[in-house]
Q: What sequence folds into this?
């Protein structure tokens, strides 16, 4: 019932808007033509949204700088700690036939980790081989940088995304409020929020991480929300019929039943985080993305290709590591 | 003593449901109210009591409001008007006026539920599904696991405690659902078409097991179904619903013998009456004594009675034979005339006749002859469903 009423309201608004535009358009057009006779601007702007945006961004940058500094600090601490932890793991170099062949211990760790997480030996081997290859392409440091940045951003995106998704799943109001925000985050061209990120957080890993968080946040929210909403009515009723209170219903029924969907959201967030972590190289986030950017700037096809291939390797590792978590216990 | 009292319950779906009552009081039906106001009448003015340890069946087609009514009893659906009182553990619980917390407590301890599609939690093992209600009650893990395992045995699922629901067949899943419903120790069990999703054979098996369970455990069961045969088989009493209203209420036999409306008659038309009709209903009760105080049942069989009309002796072709209850006809070796009680189902009589003797069966009430059942009576009973025009 309310659905029809809502659509009706929307239709009225759209029709009124269209009517209003059609009725004032001739005046607007003639005004523009009149102006153009004198001096034609390059791009006629009657709503200076761009200028307003600048004003808002400037105001934010000046007035809540401590807040941004704090975020920057947190992001850098997590990222650097993670990076230091990965890079602390030694690499053995063996001379074979006059070549320095690298054997990173990290590839071995990944081998066991992937094997354990996916339950398949072949997935473990995939991790072993890809990291070994990248290390011998000479991209070991870059790969670990990308890894750290991706995981930092994905961790934050998921830590924010799952609770938001749960709230949206149980509350219609939150759902209505959050949906346009998510749409905006996902459809705005990714390069656009690199600019304010730089203004707020300077160059380096922190703005990259912020942009990555923004990009990786929506899938966690959406899939958690969907998972909660798709819990069969009968299961919710069963929970209620046995006397669950609100919190018990959520923690003992809705969230566990939605788990496969939530884990899919986690997987998606990590994959999107990786793709953004690469793009974030444009604002100095470094890593494999940095190599790609340098490859483009200097027209070095080979360098770009090898770095790109290592991005694919990283994606495969992250995907295989997280894809099965949701399904494993079923 | 009643266990559930339902009084004047209405459920109207839609915004501002009060708008419907004016139209209802003017005698408008479900369809007209929907056209006028957009409101949907789920349940209209239902009142009845369910006795302690009774298996009460609500029967109706989909959309008749039977599941809605059931959900009013534990307020998964809030009734728009009316009152429902539960009597359990020696206390009265007015569920319709209960606040959130007392409602939750009633659901936790007094009334549990079994669902049509089982509604088992896919992330929990069988044991943890069965123990769910106890977990909510705050029973410690050891105790609730013990209790759950006990009930898993009762429903015949030993050895499946650590399986997940998805590894079980439909019938087994519903056993888990039943065990979960029983585990909380609630006096009242609501069953929402629990066997509708099962294969016919499994369904019959589960019905038998439910009846066996009812013998052993003291529970009041409110059972919803769209299957008349199931209702007739299980129900101590049955109420039939149509378009949100109760059209008839009574024992299975009353429903079969005397359907009150066309709607009920249509249902009953295809039902198998042999389990429902009783000996007394189909028997010839018009008894004539011969000169030597005998009742002639057919050309060859006679019953001699005393002055109080009590059976004394049976005769087949003039030879005296004993009168034996048909309950243990399988153990009879000599010739005899079989007797039944007034409440013996027709199907039992037919079985005894088929394997023992095709002679008429005498119906005794405290040894007094109240009638006899011949082949003629049986056929008439089956065809006319006990209706005597």
A:
């Amino acid at each position: 019932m309310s659905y029809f009423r809502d659509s009706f309201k929307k239709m009225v608004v759209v029709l009124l808007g269209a009517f209003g535009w059609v009725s004032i358009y001739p005046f607007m057009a003639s005004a523009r033509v009149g102006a153009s006779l004198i001096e034609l601007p390059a791009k006629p702007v009657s709503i200076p949204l761009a200028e307003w945006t600048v004003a808002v961004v400037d105001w934010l940058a000046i007035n809540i700088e401590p807040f941004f500094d704090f975020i920057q600090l947190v992001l850098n601490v997590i990222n650097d700690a993670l990076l230091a932890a990965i890079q602390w793991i030694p690499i053995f170099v063996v001379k074979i036939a006059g070549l320095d062949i690298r054997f990173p211990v990290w590839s071995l760790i990944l081998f066991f980790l992937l094997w354990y997480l996916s339950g398949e030996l072949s997935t473990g081997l995939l991790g072993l081989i890809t990291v070994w290859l990248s290390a011998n392409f000479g991209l070991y440091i870059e790969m670990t940088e990308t890894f750290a940045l991706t995981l930092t951003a994905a961790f934050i995106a998921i830590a924010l995304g799952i609770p938001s998704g749960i709230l949206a799943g149980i509350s219609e109001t939150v759902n209505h409020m959050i949906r346009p925000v998510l749409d905006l985050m996902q459809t705005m061209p990714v390069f656009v929020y690199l600019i304010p990120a730089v203004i707020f957080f300077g160059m380096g890993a922190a703005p990259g991480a912020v942009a990555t968080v923004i990009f990786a946040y929506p899938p966690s929210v959406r899939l958690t929300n969907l998972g909660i909403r798709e819990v069969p009515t009968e299961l919710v009723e069963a929970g209620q019929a046995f006397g669950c209170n609100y919190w018990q219903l959520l923690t003992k029924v809705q969230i566990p039943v939605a788990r496969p969907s939530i884990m899919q959201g986690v997987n998606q967030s990590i994959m999107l985080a990786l793709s953004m972590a690469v793009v974030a190289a444009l604002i100095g986030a470094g890593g494999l993305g940095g190599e790609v950017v340098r490859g483009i700037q200097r027209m070095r096809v080979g360098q770009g290709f090898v770095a790109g291939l290592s991005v694919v390797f990283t994606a495969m590792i992250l995907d295989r590591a997280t894809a099965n978590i949701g399904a494993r216990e079923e | 003593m009643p266990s559930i009292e339902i009084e004047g319950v209405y459920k109207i779906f839609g915004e501002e449901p009060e708008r419907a009552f004016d139209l209802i009081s003017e005698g408008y039906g479900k369809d007209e109210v929907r056209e006028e106001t957009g409101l949907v009448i789920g349940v209209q003015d239902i009142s009845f009591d369910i006795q302690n340890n009774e298996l009460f069946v609500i029967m109706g087609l989909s959309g008749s409001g039977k599941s809605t009514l059931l959900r009013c009893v534990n307020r998964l659906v809030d009734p728009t008007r009316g009152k429902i009182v539960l009597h359990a553990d020696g206390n009265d619980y007015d569920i319709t006026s209960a606040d959130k917390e007392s409602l939750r407590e009633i659901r936790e301890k007094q009334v549990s539920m079994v669902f049509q599609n089982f509604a088992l939690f896919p992330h929990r093992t069988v044991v943890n599904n069965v123990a769910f209600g106890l977990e909510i009650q705050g029973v410690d893990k050891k105790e609730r696991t013990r209790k759950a395992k006990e009930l898993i045995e009762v429903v015949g699922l030993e050895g499946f405690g650590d399986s997940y629901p998805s590894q079980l067949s439909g019938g087994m899943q519903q056993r888990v659902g039943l065990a979960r419903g029983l585990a909380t120790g609630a006096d009242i069990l609501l069953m929402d078409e629990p066997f509708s999703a099962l294969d016919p054979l499994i369904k019959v098996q589960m019905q038998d097991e439910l009846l066996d369970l009812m013998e052993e455990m003291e529970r009041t069961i409110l059972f919803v179904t769209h299957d008349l045969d199931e209702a007739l088989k299980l129900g101590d009493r049955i109420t039939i619903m149509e378009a949100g209203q109760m059209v008839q209420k009574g024992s299975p036999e009353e429903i079969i013998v005397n359907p009150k409306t066309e709607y009920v008659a249509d249902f009953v038309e295809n039902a198998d009456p042999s389990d429902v009709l009783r000996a007394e209903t189909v028997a010839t009760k018009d008894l004539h004594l011969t000169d030597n105080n005998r009742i002639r049942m057919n050309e060859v069989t006679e019953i001699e009675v005393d002055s109080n009309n009590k059976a004394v002796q049976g005769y087949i072709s003039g030879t005296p034979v004993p009168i034996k209850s048909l309950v243990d006809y399988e153990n009879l070796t000599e010739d005899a005339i079989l007797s039944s009680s007034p409440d013996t189902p027709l199907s039992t009589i037919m079985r005894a006749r088929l394997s023992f003797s095709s002679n008429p069966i005498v119906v005794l009430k405290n040894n007094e002859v109240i009638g006899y059942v011949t082949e003629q009576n049986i056929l008439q009973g089956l065809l006319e469903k006990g209706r005597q025009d």
